Amino acid sequence: MSRYIAAHDVSDDRIRRRVSRVLDGYGQRLQLSVYEVWLEPEELPDFRRRVGSLLSESDQFDLVPIDVHPQRIRLRWQTGIDEYEPVIVLG
Length: 91
Prior knowledge:
Layout: E1 2-9, H1 13-24, E2 27-31, E3 34-39, H2 44-52, E4 60-65, E5 75-78
Antiparallel strand pairs: 1-3, 1-4, 2-3, 4-5
C-alpha cells in the first residue's frame, strides 16, 4: 500500500463536500482540503476516476506520493500551476 498527500482546491461547496467524502474513504483529513490517503496500486485508476468525475475545469487536485518509492511522480488533475512557489518548513 502506498501513502499519498491529496490536496484539492474546489470552488463549489457541494462538490467540495463530495470530494471530501471520497477522500475520507481512503484516509484521514490533515487540514480542510488536505488528506493523507493510502492506495493499493490497483486502486489508483478507480480513485482517479471517482475524484476526477467530480471536478470542474477550474478545480485543482494534487496527489503527491510520500512513501519510499522515488520513481513516483506527482499526479495532477485539472488545471496546473504555472509556477511553483518555494515552501520553507521550520522544525
